[in-house]
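Protocol step 4 of 5: obtain the predicted structure for the target chain.
Materials: sequence only (see below). No template structures provided, no constraints applied. The aim of this step is simply to have a reference model before the mutagenesis design in step 5. Sequence pasted as it appears in the construct record:
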Amino acid sequence: MEMISDREHILLAVIDRLRIIRATDAAWLAGYTDYTYCRKCLRKLCDMGLLQICRDSAGSNCYYLSGRGLAVLGKQTSHTYEVSATTHHALVVGRVCAWLRRTEGASPGELLTDSVLRSKGDKQRHRPDIVFRGHAYEIELNHKPLSLLEKNIRDNNSYQQQVWITPDNRPGIARNLNSCAQRVGVRIQTIPLVEIEKQVATADIHKNKRDTGTWDEIESVVSMPATHSMSKYTSYFKK
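Step 4 output (structure tokens):
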């Protein structure tokens, strides 16, 4: 099999953490400084059978790990991602993570998604979509009952701040969130998704940090022998 570089291993781990991701967001989170080079690496990993591709509603490629890709990360028993009605939400989570790296210097290991929190034994019924440095980030793309919004806002009140990302073409969602927060006496911030999209689209990838952080919090290898060819990546893939 063709060799995989250190950066490509990190790229696989980023995709595993988010489950599915667009090339733009993968480039930011995996420490690339050139979109073209990141897409070249993604094509290489696809050709090697480590990644699979689907397309989003705009026709852009989206990437997720194949069974072989999961095995490279030592996750032979994990299930591959299944494209479904929730895929768009998962892609927006990836976009918000890329935005946090661009604006706050977030390393991938600091970005605790719902699936990561669940894997770490968080049993509470409601978990934020992303937890980053004590702040809860929620992606709210569809209308929900006001009682459920109030409950979720209360549940998130243990975090230092709540940030809710909402679609600009459904302004009623942001209005409902602010009304619910006022009723329960909790301060929240709402941000239109279009603003996040704009900031990521106009950001200069050449200024991206190549250092992707300590990765101490990254969900990854689950049963890797010390003699495995990836043993040198333990600082990136510590459980």
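Step 4 remarks: The first helix runs from residue 6 to 18. The beta strands are 21-22, 51-55, 61-65, 112-113, 130-132, 135-139, 161-166, 189-192.
Proceed to step 5.
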